[in-house]
């Protein structure tokens, strides 16, 4: 456990540390809620340690986050948004003025004001939440499309390169450090039999048929905050992977995380299914925002994007299981394997409904 009081003192929190505790259910960073007493008023912040095993270069990453959040805030202020500071993450500076602080062990930390009266959902509950989340991610793509200056730093090279993800799975099968391959041959065969699908978007990006955009790249449902009262998607969070990417990646991960009633790590895979009405709500929300920039090819690939991103995530969970659970946080021994199996079930459900999904997209 880190000394949260000491870490908090590295930031300009304008008050006295009261308490801090682990927060949220992200798989990558260490996230804490920290309460501060500011002249008798208790205020909370989000304090995060950037996972530098995953993000090898935290400082350029933080420069990305700073650029994106400054740009968002500027836009909101230009629009006279009355609650600009709830509509975007903003970085609380360190005492030395930097947007991050390094501790004595070389960990990179950052602080965001806590977005109050809103929350994230690990499990979607209503179609309205789908519409709102998808619209918010679409709006975020529009915002980052106008980001001035150089393209953002690529925080994880080849993050959604499904061809490389498959190659990494093959390497893990070859290395088999824990002798787990024999237990999961069925799952391995299942993923390898879908190899052709892994290359499609990578090839379109290479040929220029699909445009490279500035995308979020981790549009899982719990990376958008929905207002407690209005249900509106008010703030896109978890900006570590915001970098060059494809709209297909962003929409695909929404399908992966928003259409099934089952959790990502559900053990009873009979509960996993792609619900068409949730898919339609995502299309409605996303297209309402993205119609101004989506190309016909991007639009036609929206149904397939769900299959691709679900498959890719399953490949990553299986690779991590074979490698000894070194990437995603796990809370039980076969956690990554359970996650890998839910992704398979979801892909099969998407495959079975692909024609209907295409018909839905055609209506928008
Ligand atoms: P990870 O990269 O590990 O997924 P996130 O940045 O998504 O980390 O944060 C984990 C969780 O913490 C989020 O799902 C959300 O519930 C909560 N969270 C993050 N930032 C804020 C914020 N500024 N205000 C309120 N809650 C937040
Ligand atoms: C991770 O950080 P978090 O929990 O929002 C992962 C995503 C995966 C997701 C699977 C940087 O997202 O790519 O899709 O887990 N983020 C990174 O739940 O690898
Ligand atoms: Mg997250």
TrEMBL record:
Pfam families: APH. Residues 24-261 form the Aminoglycoside phosphotransferase domain. It comes from the Bacteria. This is Mucin desulfatase. It comes from Akkermansia biwaensis.
């Amino acid at each position: 456990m880190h000394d949260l009081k000491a870490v908090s003192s590295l930031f300009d929190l304008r008050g006295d540390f009261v308490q801090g505790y682990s927060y949220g259910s992200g798989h990558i960073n260490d996230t804490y809620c920290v309460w501060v007493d500011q002249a008798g008023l208790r205020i909370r912040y989000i304090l995060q340690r950037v996972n530098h095993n995953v993000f090898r270069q935290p400082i350029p990453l933080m420069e990305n986050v700073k650029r994106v959040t400054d740009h968002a805030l500027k836009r909101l202020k230009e629009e006279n948004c009355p609650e600009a500071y709830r509509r975007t993450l903003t970085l609380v500076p360190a005492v030395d003025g930097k947007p991050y602080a390094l501790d004595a062990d070389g960990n990179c930390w950052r602080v965001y004001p806590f977005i109050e009266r809103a929350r994230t959902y690990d499990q979607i509950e209503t179609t309205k939440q789908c519409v709102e989340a998808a619209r918010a991610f679409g709006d975020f793509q529009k915002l980052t499309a106008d980001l001035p200056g150089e393209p953002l730093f690529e925080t994880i090279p080849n993050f959604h390169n499904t061809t490389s993800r498959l190659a990494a799975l093959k390497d893990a099968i070859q290395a088999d450090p824990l002798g787990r391959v024999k237990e999961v041959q069925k799952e391995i065969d299942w993923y390898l039999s879908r190899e052709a699908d892994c290359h499609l978007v990578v090839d379109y990006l290479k040929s220029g048929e699909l445009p490279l955009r500035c995308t979020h790249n981790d549009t899982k449902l719990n990376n958008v905050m929905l207002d407690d009262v209005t249900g509106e998607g008010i703030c896109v969070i978890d900006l570590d992977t915001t970098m060059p990417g494809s709209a297909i990646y962003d929409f695909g991960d929404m399908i992966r995380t928003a259409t099934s009633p089952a959790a990502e790590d559900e053990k009873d895979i009979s509960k996993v299914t792609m619900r068409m009405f949730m898919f339609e709500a995502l299309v409605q929300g996303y297209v309402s925002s993205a119609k101004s920039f989506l190309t016909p090819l991007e639009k036609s690939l929206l149904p397939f994007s769900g299959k691709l991103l679900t498959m890719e995530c399953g490949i990553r969970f299986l690779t991590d299981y074979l490698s000894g659970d070194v990437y995603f946080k796990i809370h039980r021994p076969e956690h990554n394997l359970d996650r890998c199996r839910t992704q398979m079930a979801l892909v099969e459900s998407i495959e079975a409904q692909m024609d209907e999904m295409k018909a839905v997209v055609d209506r928008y």
